[in-house]
Design goal:
Pfam families: Hydrolase. One of its GO terms (molecular function) is hydrolase activity. Keywords: Hydrolase, Magnesium. This protein is of the alpha/beta class. It folds into two domains: about 160 residues, HAD superfamily/HAD-like (Rossmann fold); about 90 residues, Orthogonal Bundle (DNA polymerase, domain 1), CATH 1.10.150. The protein is built from ten helices and ten strands. The protein has a seven-stranded mixed β-sheet, sandwiched between helices. The protein has a three-stranded antiparallel β-sheet with strand order 1-9-8. Helix 10 links the parallel strand 5 and strand 6. It starts with 12 loop residues before the first strand and ends in a 5-residue tail after the last strand.
């Protein structure tokens, strides 16, 4: 049998894979908390005339990026500084204020120290990596973050050198959901896409992107699980502890089957 095999305990799947690719933000690391804390510091530095409550809302708007600047960055249509500048202009326009001439420098000076300080690895990450190593399952990382930020995150959290090779948005000049980045990461592992699982938290970039590239997706939803049935179900987990690692690949326990909601 190929793809997802119904050989795991009732309610679960077995994925006959030889390798696992891992997303970083909100899969390995609590990026949302770090982004909001650092964003709050940055918004207060940029526009001190607003209240703390407004700074929180501004940081959330920046993180959600309603203008799609990060998506354009993933496609390779802009660079890191342009992406940041576009998001700041969106926040400024929403609150009716000008963007300071040195906005990017102010933003980075306030954001980066707090972002580094707030990095946290989820408790299930290292045990999962150890189980993969014991079972001979190859592991690597594929993230839409930059080389520089990813290196800083891993250095801060002690993940450097523990999760195999790292493919970032900078590797090819574009990121997920482009199927080429998934295939590139698989080639680096020496494993075919069909023999590789991809674990990530974003439906479009991670689930749909990896599936289009021929990988076997697992959707991790750490903030809570959707449970709407889908004709072609994707395994849904809330924790890496729900993955049993063995010689035949991954058993996905306590399975949820979900499609995106909203």
């Amino acid at each position: 049998m190929r793809r997802s095999e119904s050989l795991a305990p009732p309610g679960g799947f077995r994925l006959p894979v030889r390798a696992v690719l891992l997303d970083v933000d909100n899969t390995l690391l609590d990026n949302t908390t770090a982004m909001l804390a650092a964003g709050l510091a940055a918004m207060a530095a940029l526009w001190p005339q607003f209240t703390a409550e407004q700074h929180v809302a501004m940081a959330e708007r920046y993180r959600l990026d309603p203008g799609g600047a990060f998506e354009r960055y993933m496609r390779g249509d802009n660079d890191y500084r342009v992406m940041r500048a576009e998001r700041l202009r969106d926040v400024a326009a929403a609150y009716g204020v000008p963007v300071p001439d040195d906005a990017l420098e102010i933003y980075e000076s306030a954001f980066r120290p707090v972002f580094a300080q707030e990095q946290r690895t989820f408790e299930d990450v290292i045990p999962f990596a150890e189980r993969c190593a014991e079972a001979g399952l190859r592991v690597a990382v594929l993230t839409n973050s930059s080389d520089e930020l990813t290196a800083e995150k891993f250095e801060r959290t002690g993940l450097t050198g523990r999760l195999g090779s790292i493919t970032t948005r900078d590797t090819l000049g574009f990121g997920k959901p482009d199927p080429r980045v998934f295939r590139h990461a698989c080639a680096g592992l020496g494993v075919e896409p069909g023999d590789t699982a991809y674990i990530g938290d974003e439906w479009a970039a991670d689930v749909e992107g990896s599936r289009a590239a021929g990988l076997q997706p697992i959707w991790i939803t750490r903030g809570g699980r959707a449970a709407a049935p889908e004709a072609d179900p994707v395994p849904v987990i809330a924790s890496l502890d729900q993955l049993r690692v063995g010689e035949r690949g991954l058993e996905v326990l306590d399975l949820g089957r979900a499609a995106p909601t909203g």
